[in-house]
Each structure stands twice: as C-alpha cells, then as structure tokens.
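Build the 3D complex.
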Amino acid sequence: MKQDRFNMLKKHNREELEKAIKEGRADMRMKGLCTYLNSLENFFTSSSCSGRIVLLSVKSIGEKQPKAFHRKWHRKVKLKEVVDALEEKTREKELWFKLDPFIIHIGARDLENARKVLKCMRAAGIKRGGIIVAQKGKFLIELQGTHAMALPVKSHGEELIGREYVTFLVKQANKKLGENYKRLELFERVCRRELQ
Amino acid sequence: MKQDRFNMLKKHNREELEKAIKEGRADMRMKGLCTYLNSLENFFTSSSCSGRIVLLSVKSIGEKQPKAFHRKWHRKVKLKEVVDALEEKTREKELWFKLDPFIIHIGARDLENARKVLKCMRAAGIKRGGIIVAQKGKFLIELQGTHAMALPVKSHGEELIGREYVTFLVKQANKKLGENYKRLELFERVCRRELQ
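Done.
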C-alpha cells in the first residue's frame, strides 16, 4: 500500500515529463537529469527549472502581491533584449531584474533514498536543499542553486538605472547563469554515478 | 545510544547559545525563538541569523573566491551609513549590496519531530526549508526567508550607481528587512503554539 503511493506519484510525474518533452515545453537543460532520475526505480522528478533571468512586475511593494513576468529567459540574454524590455511602457509600481538559480524537486521512495539525494547534492557543492516532505510513500527533496541577483530597475514607469549599469548587470547575470548551469551539469554527473 | 547522540548535540548547542547570550554576541531577534526551542525536550537550535544588510567584497568574479564583509548590519540601515561605506576606498574587484534573509537551523530528535518543524514552517508561510541532515539521533532542519536583494555596486573601486538609486535601494532594503523580521516573529509564535 505504501509503495503503491510512491509508484503512483512516480508514474504521474513521469507521464507529465514525457508530455512536456513531446510538446516542446520541457526545460532542455533539465531534460537529461529528469529523464535519468525517472528511469530509476526509487526516484522521480517534479516541477524543476534550470535557472533564468527575469524582469518581474510588482504591483505593490511589501504586501501579498500579484507578480507577473514582464520577461522570462531560460538562457543568457543579449543587452538589446533587456534594454528593449526596459524601454517598453510598464505601469506597475515596480519592475525588478532577477537572476533565479535552478530549483529541482526530486521524489524518493523512502528516507534512505532521500538521503542519497542529499549526499549527491553535497558532492556537487550545492549548498541549499533538503527534504521538504517526509511521509511514508512520499519523500520530496528540493534543491536550489545560490547564484542570484535581485534589484529594482523601474519605479512607476521610470527607469532607475543608467544604460552603463544595465550593460554591467547583463554581463554579470550571464556570467552567473553560466556558473549556475555548470553546477547543474555537475549535479547530473554525480547523480548518474551515485544513484542507480 | 541513539538518543544519547541527540542529547549530546542538544547540550552542546544550548551551552553555545547561553555563552553567546552572556557575552552579548547573540542575535537579539533570534533569542526568543532559540531560547524557547532549546527549552523543549525534542529540539535545539544551531547557528542562525535573523537577516541582515551587507556590503560584500568579492575578490574575483565567478571562480571560487574569498569574500569579506565590508559592512554587515543586523538591522535597518541609515542612508548615510551606506553612502559613507560606499565612499570608502575599496580595492576588491567588486563590492555587492545584499539583503540576506533569515536562516535558522533547528535540530530535532527524530523524523517525527523534524516533520513538526516543517509543519510550523508552512503555517508561518515560509517557503524555503527542509531536512538537510537525516540520521538516527541527528535530524537538522534549515529554514530560510525569501526577502532578498543582491546587486553589484562598485567595480575596481568605482561606484556603479548614483546617489539617487542608493537612496531608493536603502529604502527598499529596510522595507524588505522589516517584512523578513515580521515573518520570523510569526514563525516564533507558531512554534510556541505548535511545538512543546
């Protein structure tokens, strides 16, 4: 019965992944890792993101707030793309430039297998992550990278920073995103070696 | 034997906390939560931080790098403090302005008690956190806030941003730090109610 729950979850998540790959919605940088983990008996993957650069609209600061992506890139960006996006009219209270690191959700059959994922995480030098659900038949691990940037760039439609600084930011964000992707690749290599 | 390990860890960490409080090194915003959890049979706290605003020196971008605090405030900051710190000579390759959210480490006697901490975390609306060590006699939960900012402000000693933007940043960082502290207070209230 307890194993049934895990197998059911695994089946559901594997089908969701296969569907996303088929429809071209899958995050290509996560595909190798997800496909490998889902092929194993004791693991599956759930919603994951390889890392991204975003322009986030924030309607009102502080309070519980609706947020919306003004732009979202799951890759390095060109200066022109960011400048164009900044020059577009935005009416929200604030616009933030963010580099979000990868976030991965891995399901494990039991505590023993969840522990193995934590071991891989550490072997790959990933510092943030842990078991977020620990129930019989459902152990869920969340891992997150640490390459992050977050700053306000527009307020009430007005640009807060100059073009020179935007150039510097884009360069930095691309560099950090590259490091973030390298860490993710290392984690995949460790998983392929340690988890079977 | 297995319980011995937990009791030993608990004793060590409680003594460290008492020492830190006595010597005035304890983070005052963590004191209530830490003292309460350490008074319980099944929990203890380890290194924790209530959140801070920092100016971080980064020697070389990207690679494994030594980092150093140019400034570190465990409280809201005044504009003048930040401006003065920015005007000081810095020779590092980069200086970053960061708002780091709270980070809490809680030890639990067993998986059952670790689960209770995760439940409190969710009840307090904390989205990042999980069990990072899961061994007999040692279950460790790490929780982290999500109020964060991170941006480069100097490069090779040159300021990258104008005074007007620094004013905006400081206001934002103080506001977010206030929200971060409120979330921490809510977590303490939930723990006092749910954990005994």
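The helical segments of chain A are 2-22, 28-39, 79-87, 111-123, 163-194.
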